[in-house]
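Fold it.
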Amino acid sequence: MSAVDAGQELEALAVEVEGCRRCPRLVEWRERCAADPPRRFQGETYWARPLRGIGEATARVIVIGLAPAAHGGNRTGRLFTGDRSADWLFAAMHRAGYANQPESTHVGDGLRVLDAYVTAVNRCPPPENKPTPVERDNCLPYLERELGLLGDARVLVALGSFAWDGALRAVRATGGEVPRPKPRFGHGAEAQVGRWALLGCFHPSQQNTFTGRLTEEMIDDVFGRARQLSEGPGAG
């Protein structure tokens, strides 16, 4: 499939994602958060719909998160935008050459994702950041279809254990071979799954970055390894 065709298919998929109402609990939660925001966001109009992936159809690296933040992406209308996790992720991607700027604050801020594609296992914010297994499985087909359309991708970066598990499930569903026993998540963990190298990275949430569990050096190492694997011999 050409890059133009893949881009058109990704756009059609994005429109489908944005109209999804498969999970009643998540629909209710995303809309409740929009109707009763914290004081710092009162007066803002929330997106309050599922979120599409962002990036290039020719991306060689796919970054997979858990789900949008209730007052981040759910508010701004773009994954990893408008919260502290966004600050960390895109600063790291910028340092690694995967984003044109280190900030992701709002739609229209000029952000461009370069040679990468950012997506998530779930496209709506779940209460307490905990989707149910049914909610995960309702949303996984979107990730599976993205993997199929992003034909140049060679590396998956999973942000946290939930994304790691979701990536393995999506790869298996697309017919990719997943080793047994199932590869275990850890920061810096690496496994070959189907045609992708899967890399583990602690999620850039405040509970990890504020405590020092995830440092800039640690996340930079993961994106440096992603660059090495996606551009090295045999990378396509």
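The chain has one domain: 3-231.
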